[in-house]
Amino acid sequence: MINILTAAEITSKKHLNYINKPLSPIAALVMLTLSFSAQSAPELMRAKALDLQHLNDKNRIVDDVEFPVSEYLVSEKLDGIRAYWNGTQLTTKSGKQIHAPHWFIKNLPTIALDGELWLQRGKFQALTQIVMDHVPNEEAWRSVKYMVFDLPASDLPFEQRYNTLVKLIETHSTVPNNVLYLVEHKRINEISILTQWLDIIVNNHGEGLMLQHINNYYVSGRTNKLLKLKQHQDAEAIIIAYEKGNGKYKGLMGSVWVKTANDKTFKIGTGFTEQQRKNPPPVGTTIQFRYNGYTERGIPRFARFSRVRLSPDT
């Protein structure tokens, strides 16, 4: 049931407008973790980050330790909203109910599923507007797919869980109003092929890759047998001020000053659309940004705006 991906397959495919009082690390952390009211959160398995800089084409990671890439099943990391199906209800990773239309959930199986609600690459903001609405837009939900990647209630190791999931999705494909889709996993034998696949996905506006060890059991919390691989790192910060733009951005927002939960303050001036520069997110807004490592002062390097965080579920 597992496809091995080959190299041939890969290659074919200065003036602050306003600033708040400094935020303490605790206050910043509270704001970053502010959530909608939720039920008890499901005990989901969460991934640890795999640093791209630590991999090399000799199947080694940092300190020349062998990385058994062939022991992992690899899939695309979808830019969606994590959704847990408990057999009767869809919830977010924090336990908040997802108000999907009745037709969307009525034919889902009665077993627990773990996956992502997803539209397509580059459509995360549109997805958020659909999924987080308490009154579901029936027509908009017609475009949403439930991309399933795991069976949380199974006591089998992942390779066997995945094979079971493949059969489940195949059986369900003929159900009326089917919304279930499989997140396809492949086995890769070389790190060089892994990084090629990552490049292709990112160049086509994807997020990255997920690697799950074939013998990994479903456990709650983070595990080093479930890894996420990106070309960048992600973090959150709170907007505390704006800086006016110059040149082509004259009369618009040029950059924002932000503060992280560990009290690091810096500015971000890239990643914004022209519309966002005309109407920047309000001071106090939590945003997500991307970066590549840290400076000697511990400031995120090459920080660029990614999106507004409406809640921890987005």
Question: What this model shows, in words?
Answer:
One of its GO terms (molecular function) is ATP binding. It comes from Photobacterium angustum. Keywords: DNA damage, DNA repair, DNA replication, Ligase. It catalyses: ATP + (deoxyribonucleotide)n-3'-hydroxyl + 5'-phospho-(deoxyribonucleotide)m = (deoxyribonucleotide)n+m + AMP + diphosphate. This is DNA ligase. The chain is an alpha+beta fold and about 325 residues long. The protein folds into two domains: about 15-35 and about 235-310, Nucleic acid-binding proteins (OB fold (Dihydrolipoamide Acetyltransferase, E2P)), CATH 2.40.50; about 45-230, D-amino Acid Aminotransferase, Chain A, domain 1 (2-Layer Sandwich). The protein contains eight helices and 19 strands. It has a six-stranded mixed sheet with strand order 1-12-6-13-14-3. Strands 2, 15, 16, 17, 18 and 19 form a six-stranded antiparallel sheet that branches. A five-stranded mixed sheet has the order 8-7-9-10-11. It is globular, with a radius of gyration of 21 Å.
Summed up, what is this model?
This protein has 314 residues and is of the alpha+beta class. The chain has helices at residues 7-12, 25-32, 102-105, 124-131, 138-141, 158-172, 191-203, 274-278, and strands at 3-5, 16-19, 45-50, 60-61, 65-66, 72-77, 81-85, 90-91, 113-118, 145-150, 180-182, 186-188, 208-213, 221-229, 233-244, 253-259, 265-268, 286-291, 304-308. 20% of the residues lie in helices and 31% in strands.
